[in-house]
């Protein structure tokens, strides 16, 4: 028998049921009416000793609505009483709703503390709401009090599935963080402050630069601490534009007061990598912005062994320093031979002439008056790279 009867009052009753018992997703978008907001004001003003008793009497429907109100706190009320009510009445549905809303309102410190207390005191309840994720209670307890929650969440994401190169947005979801939320979007935006070496190498210099330009000074420091830990020295020659931007805007050149102040709090190993990154940049600026320049290609491969590099504009030369040796290369199109000196000899007898003379004068003096101090002079003819490499290895300048 065909049954097509539909009670006439069913749509209205169904709507009323949804209003009385909204789901978590519906709570998020539920419009709070004025009468309920008046009750919220009264709860917020209760004497501390009356809050626990009042919490027991509030219908669970209104507790659900309160969970929707607290994250945004549109009335700017003190939240101590309201979060206490939610803590006492929290069930699985309310805790899940709070966790979802927290992803858009994670800067609400009262909400963070409420969730911390729920995880701490009601762990079994919390395990249920994250059961389909990789998220653990101990991790959540580290997130909620963090001063930089997007960074803390991002770092945790990088711990999971390192062997599988899945999208970062998918990693967020494995920890129950929706990429579309404010927290998810900030994690994606701050990705460069916590990603691994493979993640960096997947991003070109051109694509990385716009992201860095949007970062705050604090995020720039986090980015540098991380990339200087993750990358090898030779990796940095990929990032000429980014390195130039960081030097020009944030750090200045090595040895300056601005540079020293910026790197306070960095490890010596991190600072040394950055210094060598600047050496790459300086070598590229000195010879050519064309990556096919033979001197650029040659000296870039030896930056990992260098201790410093600097240009002297008066004489148009570049000095590349190694632990025991100093090398002079000329940056003009007319080139000129390269000269290799013991560092102590260079500092004592040669260095002073670099700023006193122009390019022509210096090249003349190095050959006619100061040649006795050089351990080697190499002209840029065919096979000069081979001869220079052999000399560098023979004298343990490189290994």
List the secondary-structure elements in sequence, H or E: HHHHHHHHHHHHHHHHHHHHEEEEHHEH
Rounded radius of gyration (Å): 32 Å
The level of helicity is: 55-70%
What's the overall average pLDDT, rounded?
Answer: 90
Strand order of the largest sheet: 1-2-3-4-5
Task: Identify the overall geometry.
Answer: elongated
Cα end-to-end separation? 91 Å
Can you give a write-up of this model?
It is a single chain. The protein has 399 residues and is α+β, with helices and mostly antiparallel strands. It contains 23 helices and 5 strands. The chain has helices spanning 10-20, 24-28, 34-45, 51-57, 60-72, 80-89, 92-102, 109-121, 123-129, 137-143, 149-159, 168-174, 182-189, 197-201, 205-213, 217-230, 240-251, 257-262, 268-287, 294-300, 343-356, 359-368, 384-394, and strands at 308-312, 317-321, 325-330, 338-342, 376-378. The protein has a 5-stranded antiparallel sheet with strand order 1-2-3-4-5, sandwiched between helices. This is Zorya protein ZorC EH domain-containing protein. It comes from Faecalibacterium prausnitzii.
């Amino acid at each position: 028998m065909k049954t097509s009867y539909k009670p006439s009052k069913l749509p209205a009753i169904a709507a009323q049921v949804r209003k009385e018992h909204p789901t978590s997703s519906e709570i998020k978008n539920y419009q709070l009416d004025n009468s309920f907001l008046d009750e919220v004001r009264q709860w917020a003003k209760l004497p501390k000793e009356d809050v626990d008793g009042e919490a027991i009497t509030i219908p669970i429907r209104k507790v659900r609505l309160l969970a929707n109100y607290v994250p945004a706190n549109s009335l700017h009320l003190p939240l101590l009483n309201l979060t206490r009510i939610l803590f006492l009445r929290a069930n699985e549905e309310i805790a899940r709703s709070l966790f979802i809303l927290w992803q858009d309102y994670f800067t609400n410190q009262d909400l963070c503390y409420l969730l911390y207390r729920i995880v701490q005191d009601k762990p079994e309840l919390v395990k249920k709401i994250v059961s389909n994720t990789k998220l653990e209670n101990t991790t959540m307890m580290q997130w909620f009090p963090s001063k930089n929650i997007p960074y803390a969440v991002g770092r945790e994401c990088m711990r999971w599935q390192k062997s599988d190169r899945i999208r970062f947005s998918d990693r967020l979801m494995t920890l129950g963080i929706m990429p579309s939320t404010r927290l998810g979007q900030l994690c994606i935006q701050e990705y460069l402050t916590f990603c691994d070496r493979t993640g960096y190498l997947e991003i070109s210099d051109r694509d990385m630069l716009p992201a860095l330009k949007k970062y705050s000074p604090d995020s720039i420091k986090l980015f540098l601490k991380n990339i200087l830990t993750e990358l090898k020295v030779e990796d940095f020659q990929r990032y000429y534009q980014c390195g130039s931007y960081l030097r020009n805007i944030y750090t200045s050149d090595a040895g300056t007061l601005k540079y020293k102040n910026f790197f306070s709090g960095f490890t010596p190993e991190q600072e040394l990598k950055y210094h060598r990154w600047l050496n790459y940049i300086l070598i590229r600026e000195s010879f050519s912005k064309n990556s096919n320049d033979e001197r650029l290609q040659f000296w870039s491969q030896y930056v990992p062994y260098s201790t410093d590099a600097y240009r002297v504009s008066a004489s148009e030369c570049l000095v590349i320093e190694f632990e025991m040796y100093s090398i002079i290369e000329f940056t003009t199109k007319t080139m000129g031979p390269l000269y290799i000196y013991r560092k102590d000899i260079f500092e004592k007898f040669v260095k002073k002439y670099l700023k006193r003379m122009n390019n022509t004068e210096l090249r003349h003096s190095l050959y006619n008056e100061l040649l006795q101090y050089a351990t080697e002079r190499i002209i840029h003819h065919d096979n000069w790279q081979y001869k220079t490499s052999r000399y560098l290895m023979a004298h343990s300048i490189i290994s």
